[in-house]
Design brief:
Shape: globular
Order of helices and strands: EHEHEHEHHEHEHHHE
CATH class: Alpha Beta
CATH topology: Rossmann fold
Radius of gyration: 18 Å
Distance between the termini: 41 Å
Helix content: 40-55%
CATH superfamily: NAD(P)-binding Rossmann-like Domain
Length: 265
């Protein structure tokens, strides 16, 4: 993609014409980010493990702009390879990779199984790393000094502070995502590929439905957020658009909390 003229304020936050892949894009935060990119003029491919849900979401999102579905599973090496090969068959380059797919598991401490660690780490950490590596040729093809290619990892505020829930593998995995983000940022900076992470607080998603679908629990969660509310779609989409635009071109290795002030506590 040709970069906008440096210093032009009217295009500072533009992502028009950029190609974007979003994992876990059929629902929750991935869907919110996909809507944001499409509304801003980008071309988006979403992937999700459930093929029917992935295709249905792409059809819904398609009213906003060009959106393609590639069902895939980033929790296995075979799934990562298949996804990368499928994308390479239709794309010569990739401007933005959003590693959003995630898994969680909540069980009391002494009942917490090894299988929970395997599932969560396979998706949240190994999948992020392996897909980023598999798509480096496409990211390198898009990268320029004026307009780097971007990897945006979705971490969590729970990777920055100890949660109250007994979901031990999840916050540990998100802390690993944050460190992996910094490590990759340092390694890939010379190739004009930036790597940053968004650390969301509470947002409406399947992962948070157990708390946010109940009005009393939702009010309790909101009361703990300094800004007094749960995150809205534009909050997380705006953060991703900033990182992917020329405004965020000099940003790498950053963990950006989008949490209504929770981290400030």
């Amino acid at each position: 993609m040709v970069a906008d003229a440096p210093g032009d304020p009217s295009t500072l936050f533009s992502v028009a014409g950029k190609s974007v892949l979003i994992t876990g894009g059929s629902r929750g935060i991935g869907y919110m980010i996909a809507r944001g990119f499409l509304s801003a003029g980008a071309s988006v491919t979403i992937t999700a493990r459930k093929a029917s849900a992935c295709r249905a979401a792409a059809e819904e999102l398609g009213v906003l702009g060009p959106c393609t579905a590639i069902p895939g599973d980033v929790s296995t090496p075979e799934g990562v390879v298949a996804l990368a090969e499928s994308l390479r068959s239709t794309h010569a380059s990739l401007d933005v990779l959003v590693n959003n797919a995630g898994a969680a598991w909540g069980v009391p401490l002494e009942e917490y199984p090894r299988s929970a660690w395997d599932k969560v780490l396979d998706v949240n950490v190994k999948g992020v790393f392996e897909l980023s590596v598999a798509l480096l040729p496409l990211l390198r093809a898009a990268a320029t000094a004026d307009d780097p290619a971007r990897i945006i990892n979705v971490g969590s505020i729970e990777g920055l502070q100890v949660p109250e829930l007994e979901n031990y593998a999840y916050p540990a995995s998100k802390a690993a995502v944050h460190m992996l983000t910094r490590h990759l940022a340092l390694r890939l900076a010379s190739e004009q590929i930036t790597v940053n992470a968004i650390a969301p607080g509470p947002f409406d998603s399947k992962m948070m439905a157990f708390a946010l679908d109940d009005p009393s629990t939702r009010n309790l969660v909101s009361s703990k957020v300094p800004l007094g509310r749960v995150g809205r779609p534009d909050d997380v989409a705006g953060a991703a658009l900033y990182i992917a635009s020329r405004a965020g071109a000099y940003l790498t290795g950053v963990i950006l909390p989008v949490d209504g002030g929770l981290r400030a506590r």
